[in-house]
Design a protein that fits this description.
The protein is α/β, with parallel strands linked by helices and 340 residues long. The protein folds into two domains: 149 residues, NAD(P)-binding Rossmann-like Domain (Rossmann fold, 3-Layer(aba) Sandwich); 166 residues, Dihydrodipicolinate Reductase, domain 2 (2-Layer Sandwich), CATH 3.30.360.10. Helices cover 34% and strands 27% of the residues. The chain has 13 helices and 16 strands. Strands 3-2-1-4-5-6-15 form a seven-stranded parallel β-sheet, with helices on both faces. A seven-stranded mixed β-sheet has the order 10-11-12-7-13-14-16. The protein is globular. The N and C termini lie far apart (39 Å). This is Saccharopine dehydrogenase.
Length: 340
């Protein structure tokens, strides 16, 4: 059976990487690239701010839309639900994810609507499940993120940080919503893969919401550190003196907008149960764009099997946790260590 897949934002860093990995693993899939400029052949003009351009989605008989560009108004989401088209979104920061999820939950769903906006394409929550026999046994999840300014990075993550660094976000303590800010509340953590001990600071990712509100884990926190200890300390100092509050959006974008030529990306999951702690450490030697794109492809491959019923999902719900873990381990640029 032929599958027509549209990658909206397919000309961006992550979009291009999704297409490369998807083609290499699924050569029979027909891939269309959606962007504001469009073009010839499989390049379609799809502007998320202009629903009039969406007619091309129906004309090309698209089966699945992968959204790798931020659609603030959820125009694509509303269109795919109305037209019974499968959907995978890897782009949304927490506030936008909560809004989009509410929209989808209040609609009659006749396709698979998948939100994959957790850290690195939504794989963290699936990997959490590999560390405990039963999710109900988990009392706490801590996610530690190592971010390198040398890594290739798209604009969206930098823009999110610039827009939200001065605003509080929510972490969860005993099922209470606790407002916190980025780059405060430092915690020492000994990172794997030769990184060593670093100070890690508050960081907002959708996994906070998903693990508490969807998976019902009472305590969830996320901390991040940069490859440069000085940059990590400096951003914490900026937050303490409230410098971000007086900087313009343009100035904040300049701070967070750097991108290198490539570096490793690492995250570590630590869970606490009544039986003790477990840890999983993951390294992507080709960086966060490669890992995010691979995650999107693994979710896509699950949807291509046509074994999942029509409803709303978070991407980790598509997978058997052990199967997801093995697929990640099999990828040549990923290294995983687990205490289990």
């Amino acid at each position: 059976m032929e599958h027509n897949i549209l990658v909206v934002g397919g000309n961006g860093l992550v979009g291009k990487t999704i297409i490369r990995i998807l083609k290499s693993r699924n050569p029979d899939v027909n891939i269309f690239i959606g962007g504001r400029k469009g073009g010839t052949g499989n390049h379609l003009k799809i502007d998320v701010t202009d629903p009039r351009t969406f007619r091309m989605i129906k004309e090309k008989e698209i089966d699945l839309v992968i959204l790798s560009v931020n659609d603030k108004e959820d125009h694509i989401l509303r269109f795919v639900i109305e037209n019974k088209i499968d959907y995978l979104d890897i782009t949304k920061p927490t506030p936008d994810l909560v809004k989009a999820y509410a929209i989808a939950k209040n609609k009659a769903i006749q396709s698979r609507i998948v939100f994959s906006s957790g850290w690195m394409g939504g794989i963290v929550n699936g990997l959490v499940k590999t560390l405990a026999g039963n999710m109900q046994d988990i009392q706490e999840v801590k996610l530690f993120v190592y971010y390198s300014v040398k890594d290739l990075a798209g604009e969206s993550s930098a823009h999110f940080m610039a827009e939200n660094v001065a605003k509080p976000f929510i972490r969860y303590e005993n099922n209470r919503s606790v407002p916190v800010k980025h780059f405060l509340d430092s915690e020492d953590f000994d990172f794997s893969f030769g990184i060593g001990k670093r100070e890690a600071y508050n960081f907002d990712v959708p996994d906070l919401y998903i693990l508490n509100q969807i998976e019902k884990i009472p305590n969830v926190s996320v901390k991040m550190t940069y490859n440069s200890k000085f940059i990590t300390w400096l951003l914490g100092a900026f937050q303490k003196i409230r410098l971000f509050n007086i900087l313009s959006l343009k100035e904040r974008k300049m701070i967070f907008g750097s991108s290198g030529n490539g570096d490793q990306s690492v995250f570590e999951i630590v869970i606490k149960t009544k039986n003790g702690n477990e840890k999983l450490s993951l390294q992507s030697t080709k960086g966060q764009a490669e890992l995010t794109a691979l995650s999107a492809v693994l979710h896509t491959e699950e949807l291509l099997k046509k074994t999942h019923e029509n409803k709303v999902y978070f991407s980790h719900q598509l997978h058997q946790p052990s199967s997801l873990l093995e697929k990640l381990k099999a990828y040549e640029t990923i290294n995983i260590k687990s205490s289990r």
